[in-house]
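Why Tetratricopeptide repeat protein 8? Reviewers of the renewal asked for a concrete example.
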Amino acid sequence: MDPIFLALSLYKKRCFEECVSTCTELLDKNPFDQAVWVLKMKALTEQLYVDDLEAEEEGIAEAFMDNETIAESARPGTSLKNPGTSQGGSTQGYRPWTQTGRPVSGVIRPGTQTARPGTMEQALRTPRTSKTARPSTSQSARTIRLGTASMLSEPGGPFIQLSRINLGNYAAKPALAKPLFLYILYHENNIRHALQLAVLATQACEFKDWWWKVQLGKCYYSLGLMREAEQQFRSALRQHQCIETFLRLGRVYIRLDQPLSALDVCRTGLEYFPKEVTLLTEIARIFEGLNNMTMSVKYYREIVTEDSTNVEAIACIGMHHFYTDQPEMALRFYRRLLQMGLYNAELFNNLGLCCFYAQQYDMTLSCFQHALSLAKDDDVADIWYNIGLIAIGVGDTRLAGQCLRLAISSDSGHAPAYNNLGVLELRKGRMNEARAFFQAAASLAPYLFEPYFNHSALSHKIGDLQASYIVIQKALEAYPNHIPSQELLHTLEKHFTII
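Here is what the prediction returned.
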């Protein structure tokens, strides 16, 4: 078999390592064969390609070193950083919130995870850490042309030496420039050289190629230059309407904390691509980030109508039903995920909770047993915490205490477990231990209002009114609409007025 045809066949079958080995042998015989050089470059890129639309995660540096300040106090429903200002959302007392102030999502996705080791953010910044599941969509015919000295690679060294390559020579050749750009961006992870090549290629095509404008916007977005990225994406949309461009422009506005502008962009995209699932998903995520669950679930239902196997939509609808006191409906959606082949600890944990609140007690323990058998280190604490909640619900406080302590032993920073342990100790009359647990929970999760309220109620009960007054104000800062906290504050203010 011809080795060139063999390499192309291996690339088409997604056997990228064998394809790279075959191309390396061919380049050893003829180092200036541009066709084989491009094929090897594309195979190396596909090995490490990451769909950065679904993998991007805003890190701590981007959050705290943001120069795009719009307004200190955003209007209600116009900011993702202050979702509590939105109207018509779910009640914080029923649906838990994350540390960023957003309601808990049905699935892990961009914006729901912080930048910690082990997330996709590091996979994007570090080459050779991830693979793609996308099928290859581009095939180029083999044309034998002689390259330049920059195509020569040292044995055992890098395939392409970016310091020696003359980007200007390749910018005028689209067949070489586009694969080279993707290689530099995804394999070498060198945004500076990729941006330089994109600028030269855009000038070479006289600003008529929308694809290069999108790549320029991607580089500007990665460098934190949001306004420049916005300009490039809008210019690309004027030349060609593409789903990816609409999504990336929407992500720019989300990073700028302008969710209403992002919604307008996605709705404009739906005019060109009606019922497009990716655009509907983006709109549903934005509404959920704004704490407008009614509109979010509406769009998720449209997604399920178009794609009945969309895991994110099914999970989010199921979670919405669970937190709106409809565990039977939630159970139907989670069973659908189980029938689709999803088999993990989180799903069985949710199934167990739905079975318990739907009074199907015979299935509850078996679901949690499956969850514990499938749980990873990050999930064990949450599962033991939920088992503790069920034990409290059936009145077995001893089992509840054991489960909550197991949750703390698995995760020493599990604030809800500390809070519930404090409540159990308070029921036993151990005031000092209960106060210690409430203080630990408040220090670990200052965004939760329950530890503050419980601590304030305990202080009021033992007569420490000053401490109760100080702590209840922190509870109202975390959740201003909590009626018991408002009543307790009113009682304390009346007491101080009488004194």
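Confidence is low (pLDDT under 50) at residues 85-90, 113-154. This is the kind of structural detail the renewal will allow us to pursue systematically.
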